[in-house]
Amino acid sequence: MKDIFTRTLTGILYLAVFIAALLAGRFTFAVLFLAISLLSLHEFYNMVILMGYQPLKYLGLTINAVLFLLVFYICSYDKPLAISLFVAPFLILVFILELYRNRPNPLANISFTLLGILYVSLPVTLFNKFAFYLSKEYSYQIVLGFFILLWINDTFAYIFGISFGKHRLFERISPKKSWEGFIGGTIITLLSAFLLNKVFTGLNRIDWIVIGLIIAISGVFGDLVESMFKRAADIKDSGKILPGHGGMLDRFDSVLLSSPLVFAYLMLINQL
User: Fold this and answer.
1) How far is residue 229's CA from residue 224's CA, in Å, rounded to a whole number?
2) Which sign, positive or negative, has the C-alpha torsion 149, 154, 160, 165?
3) Are residues 86 and 213 in the same domain?
4) Which of 133, 154, 187 is the endpoint of a domain?
5) What are the CA-CA distances from residue 206 to residues 189, 190, 196, 234, 259 (Å)?
6) How many Cα atoms within 13 Å fall on the side-chain side of residue 198?
7) Cα torsion angle, 216, 124, 25, 136, sign
8) In Å, how far are 26, 235, 264 from 129, measured between CA atoms?
9) Helices (H), ranges, the chain
């Protein structure tokens, strides 16, 4: 009972802070997502360390912050995208600093450092583009709509899985996930997406349905990928920052594969 209370209270506080930060404006949005990216990347590097490798953790976190802030500046003030190339010297430093560390497995250390940027930093940074996609002014519509669909999918996949789950979706990695949960969560997500443009009018109904489908399919793979990493590190949760829920990476694993695909879709329809 205590665990359920802790999990519920943490979930309510998390949702309240998250939504309030989005509604408050672009700077609280930036602080929120920068914090999410830094904490998630920190947890990822800690998992890699548990696997026996030594990524350049603090340089990776610095690159994460520089990348996020540069893209936020580009989007927020309508600056040329080429400004993001300023992150290149920091990426080169990964190779140079590894020369001087004289650690075993230098290729793996460099690879895992850069993988963290690709796997965590870039997907979270893309939310800057979502926040300024509709116009040059900040709008929470796509960001909040994205997460509403994600939360609905997670919630109903769990409910359908607990109630009807008999056929395992990917038992080797996640024994509790079922096809019934995946299908039920997807159906409810698509129904929610069908209605979402009544609230968030920046995108039309078809666009929200496509985004909902992307989130439902790629989100489950995002969850499985993080579970694969945790199994390799032999841990249950990526961290303990959210009591009853685990780490920040545990809460945002579904986002990491879905946001690049949603970004690609938005860029595609923008060109049509």
Assistant:
1) 9
2) positive
3) no
4) 133
5) 13, 10, 10, 42, 18
6) 5
7) negative
8) 12, 33, 11
9) 2-24, 26-50, 57-76, 88-101, 106-116, 122-125, 127-131, 141-164, 179-196, 205-233, 248-271
Residue 67 covered by a domain: yes
Angle between helix 88-101 and helix 57-76 axes, rounded to 10 deg: 180
Main-chain dihedrals φ then ψ at residue 150, nearest 5 degrees: -65, -45
Residues 123 and 148 in one domain: no
> Each residue of 112-160: pLDDT tens digit?
999 999 999 999 999 999 999 998 899 999 999 999 999 999 999 999 9
The token duo for 206 is 């078809």
Contact status, residue 115 vs residue 107, Cβ threshold 8 Å: no
Measured at the CA of 24, the angle between CA 19 and CA 28, to 5 degrees, comes to 85
**Domain span including residue 73:** 26-133
Rg of the chain (C-alpha set): 19
Contacts for 192 with CB less than 8 Å, ≥ 6 apart:
148, 149, 152, 212
Q: What is the mean pLDDT of the chain?
A: 93
Instruction: Output the pTM of the full model.
Output: 0.94
Residues 6+ away with beta carbon under 8 Å from 150: 215, 219, 254, 255, 258
SS3 state of residue 196: helix
Q: What is the 3-state secondary structure (H, E, C) of 108-128?
A: HHHHHHHHHHHHHHHHHHCHH
- Residue 196 counted as domain residue: yes
Give the residue from 133, 154, 173 where a domain finishes: 133
- Which residue, chain included where needed, has tokens 């609905």? 152
Reported as a single tens digit per residue, the pLDDT across 197-229 is 899 999 999 999 999 999 999 999 999 999 999
C-alpha to C-alpha distance for 223 and 170, rounded to whole angstroms: 11
